[in-house]
Amino acid sequence: MSDNASGQTEAAAPAPRAGRTGTLYLVGLDGLSPAVIAELTALGDLPNLRRIAEQGCHGDLATLFPTESPIIWSTIATGRLPDGHGVDGFQHFTLFGRRISTKTFHRLKHLGLKRPLRLLERMGLFHRRLLDMRDLKAKRLWEIIGDGGGRVGVVNWWNSWPAVPINGFLVSSRLHYWRAMAFGQMTDASRVIWPPRLLKELGGLIIPPDHVTLEELQRFVNLPEEKLGKFIDAKFVHHQLRGELKFLISADRTYSQLMDGCLERFPDLTFAALYLRGPDIAQHCAFDYMPSATHSERSPEERSRFGQVVPQAYRQADEMLGRVMARMKPSDTLLTMSDHGFGWMEKRGKYGHARGNPPGVLYCIGPEFKAGARIENAGVCDIAPTVLRLCGLPAAQDMPGRCLEELLTPEFRAARPPLPRIPTYGPPRPTAARPMAENRQWRKASRTTCARWDILIDAGKGVTEEKGSGYFSVVGKVA
Q1: CB atoms inside a 10 Å sphere around CB 41
Q2: Which end of the chain has the smaller Cβ count within 10 Å, N or C?
Q3: CA 257 to CA 451: how far, in whole Å?
């Protein structure tokens, strides 16, 4: 069921049938900035993005405000604005048993009610948790395409936990859980992957943060070995380089390797999506160390030590993009994009993306796209209608974006005319997953620097199937 513009409730239309030749890959690279890409490609870096620019289409991608990743990546995946898909920030808040919006929560804080909220939280009258897939009010691309008969795969997309059954595979955004746990936000680590057998089959590909090597760190920072060790041992502090670096390296490497492992086991997909967060975190930590950061007051010595953090994060993302591109057959298509860019925020006096809505980027390559075309007037709302068009499915009337028809070849447009829009694809199907209970062991673990997920490295030790559920519960040791 879905609410239309007049407030009336209408039923979702029967699922149209997906149909395309080849796999459509969607790769999300958080925070890639047009200016940084231009700077690095001028130096001969980022060969895979350069190849797409030469052989396919590329350009800026307009974003939303606020430029918060969960909101924008949910819009990219659903084609809906926040009011339509239900994600309005990072957390879900309830006060006296009723949900309050992120906007309302911040208003209460600005009114000086931060301490009363903490008191109410201790009394059990105010609750907060990370938003997850249970909060989505709209189907995402893989659900739409899967319902239409397409075989799909997803790795690490925002709000993809808990992993529910789909027509293919799903590696949720909580599989590499260490950063969230260090943040004090992890309370449940079950249902992280579908199908559950992949947890045992691919556990050896998961890289804990403290397994990052000195050689890997040296690609990012210019420090002697005795000081590099402190980056591995450092306590996590949000958006501080010393505490964040091992997390961004290990998480993106893990999810890239899991994508490879899943694609080996699930050939001939209709749609496959991968999300990597490393470039965004690197820029929050170290953008002002870059030589091009003209507003920065960092010393030449500091820039020499840490000036390669952001460029190397971009190189790592480009390399991982290349691993997907290496799998592409002539009939396959790829769209890769960022949710926003990065730049100088005059009012805040620092680099970031919270002010000014800096655009992201969109790169497209495949037989349906014109070669060498420049993308103009594209926004994050346009991704879902374009993907559906390429999968032989109609967009919905409740999607405000458009298909980027001007990028498609005349031959494709003549052979595959656009389909009329349907009213709606409706909400996600109800899941049988029970509500997640608080777990004292995980709450205790979340206060440690890094808990080892030994069971994933040690041949599935400690992984037990929940009776009758088809899921595996995971409980790790506290370091």
Answers
A1: 16
A2: N
A3: 21
Give the SS3 label for residue 251: helix
What is the DSSP pairing of strand 193-194 with strand 152-155?
Answer: unpaired
Mean pLDDT of 152-165: 94
Number of residues written out for the chain: 479
Give the three-class secondary structure for 265: helix
Structure tokens at 393: 């499915």
Write the pLDDT tens digit of every residue in 164-206. 999 999 999 989 888 877 766 655 557 889 999 998 899 999 9
Count other Cβ atoms within 10 Å, centred on residue 474.
23
Whether pLDDT at 72 is above 50: yes
Using the CB atoms, write b or e for 362-392: b if 16+ within 10 Å: bbbbbebbeeebebeebbbbbbbbbbbbbbb
Q: Quick one: pLDDT band at residue 271, thresholds 50, 70, 90?
A: very high
Nearest-angstrom CA–CA distance, 131 and 116: 23
Tell me what the mean pLDDT of segment 286-300 comes to: 90
Q: Which CATH class is domain 14-86+132-474?
A: alpha beta
Domain boundaries, the chain: 14-86+132-474, 91-130
What does 117-169 look like in DSSP terms, one character per residue? HHHHHHTTSEEEEE--GGG--S--HHHHHHHTT--EEEES-TT--S----SEE
pTM for the structure as a whole: 0.87
- What rounded mean pLDDT belongs to the chain? 85
CB-facing half-sphere around the CA of 296: CA atoms within 13 A: 19
Dist. CA 259–CA 168, nearest whole Å: 13
What letter represents residue 171's amino acid?
Answer: V
Flag whether pLDDT at 13 surpasses 80: no
Contacts of 106 (CB under 8 A, 6+ apart): none
SS3 47: helix
* pLDDT tens-place string over residues 383-438: 999 999 999 999 999 999 999 999 999 999 999 999 999 999 999 987 644 334 33
Q: Which long-range contacts (CB under 8 A, 24 or more apart) does 458-462 make?
A: 459/200, 459/203, 460/199, 460/200, 460/203
Cβ(314)–Cβ(48) below 8 Å:
no
Residues 6+ away with beta carbon under 8 Å from 467: none
Of the candidates 254, 89, 68, which has an alpha carbon nearest to the alpha carbon of residue 172? 254
* 358: pLDDT strictly greater than 50: yes
What totals of helices (H) and strands (E) does the chain contain, helices first?
A: 19, 18
